[in-house]
Amino acid sequence: MKKVFVKSYGCQMNVYDAERMADMLASEGYSETAAMEEADLVILNTCHIREKAAEKVYSELGRVREMKKEREALGQETKIVVAGCVAQAEGQEILRRAPAVDVVVGPQNYHNLPRLLKKPRSERVVDTEFPIEDKFDHLPKPSRAAIRNRGVSAFLTIQEGCDKFCTFCVVPYTRGAEVSRPVAKILDEALRLADAGVRELTLIGQNVNAYHGEGPDGSVWSLGRLLHRLAEVPGIARLRYTTSHPRDMDDELIAAHRDLSAVMPYLHLPVQSGSDRILDAMNRRHTSDEYRRLIARIREAQPDLALSSDFIVGFPGETDAEFEETMRLVADVGFASSFSFKYSPRPGTPAAEIDAQVPEPVKAERLARLQNLLEMQRQAFNHGTVGQTLDVLLEKLGRHPGQMAGKSPYLQAVQIETDRHAVGEIVTVRITRAGSNSLFGDWVGPGSQAAA
């Protein structure tokens, strides 16, 4: 068989897309490899969210080009594909700047890869038009063996695209408008994953809680209603979802956190800033106090909630006082984990055209202060679990002999000393110690979700 190497950057959606590309190419005679130098096909599945994303891709393509030359010298052909959001944004520019690239394909078009790869080398192609057809209708189902090989936790795309048009974000331009998959197709995929041993599903989408898919009865289903249906799938014990927008946390979804034991008490809900003026400039369409009140409502429904968020510091025009408002919001709300970044302009977004860019040293100082506070909160949350008993989904062998590794309901990594091999089991663990990035504990017995 020919071999394919896929390198994914960025979000969980890209991880999911990479798996689906591998599934699709398996039927074309490709097997996956973790060693790029032995690959007949190299796919860079790119992300455009972070600073200088395109330049990082071109730098990586330089290394892949050299590998391609070395293989050609040995009489081995290598094709190079650039996929994902940088492909969508850069298009023909990639072929111009990186002559070694054979195919450029956007995130809505990768189902066309088998056809594109059959074209002769002289026909280097770009496929970034937003298609009319649903790519999921053209993707083959992964084999049971492939699913089992990926572990007991899986991503499941239920929605793509975004209609929010935050002024700093490229997603509406690279992923397109919001589109939700029908409930029946999601359920079919969930049943297939569960049959292969998956115990935990993370529902993903660029704006996942804006889900509005067609139900079996023809009506529109919300994410809350979908969670209720997926909680009934035999074998699926845990449900998560990401990434959400505060404007789409409706009553039905909040109630699902209260009523469904399968929905984990962990929520990633980006706020980005604590300043109302900055939130307005970002086109977030909520205020800092609305965010605070929303969190209070969710915590009333689910008192054990662990909260995660995203923050951008140094948005154009942000003053010292406005940054302090973000610091106050973090202190008021309290987060178990978070992601924080310096603002960086994305070409083509409205914020990139604002003249009042914050100097880099100021952004760096603000980010350091914010990350210090967020890290203090993360460590406090982790240390607060010491002495507690938590259900842990065991996912793999630990780093050392006699260990197993898994995840807590709060998405924390947990290491357990045990000689048993129990991948896929949910067990009760007494947490004895909190390290810098993992919890450590003792196996107590079967978890409360063990029979789910």
- Neighbour order of strands in the largest sheet: 2-1-3-4-5-6
Radius of gyration: 23 Å
Mean pLDDT: 93
Helix count, DSSP H or I runs of 4 or more residues: 14
Low-confidence stretches: none
Structural class comes to alpha/beta
**Cα shape:** globular
- Give the beta-strand count: 21
Share of β-strand residues: 15-25%
Which bin fits the share of residues in helices? 25-40%
How far apart the termini lie comes to: 39 Å
Major β-sheet profile: 6 strands, parallel
EC number: 2.8.4.3
Binding site for [4Fe-4S] cluster 1: 11, 47, 85
Catalytic activity: N(6)-dimethylallyladenosine(37) in tRNA + (sulfur carrier)-SH + AH2 + 2 S-adenosyl-L-methionine = 2-methylsulfanyl-N(6)-dimethylallyladenosine(37) in tRNA + (sulfur carrier)-H + 5'-deoxyadenosine + L-methionine + A + S-adenosyl-L-homocysteine + 2 H(+)
Domain Radical SAM core: 148-380
What does this structure look like?
Belongs to the methylthiotransferase family. MiaB subfamily. Catalyzes the methylthiolation of N6-(dimethylallyl)adenosine (i(6)A), leading to the formation of 2-methylthio-N6-(dimethylallyl)adenosine (ms(2)i(6)A) at position 37 in tRNAs that read codons beginning with uridine. [4Fe-4S] cluster 1 binds at residues 11, 47, 85. The protein is an alpha/beta fold and 452 residues long. Helices cover 34% and strands 23% of the residues. The chain contains 14 helices and 21 strands. A 6-stranded parallel beta sheet has the order 2-1-3-4-5-6, with helices on both faces. Strands 17-18-19-21-20 form a 5-stranded mixed barrel. Strands 7-10-13 form a 3-stranded parallel beta sheet, with helices on both faces. 41% of the residues are buried.
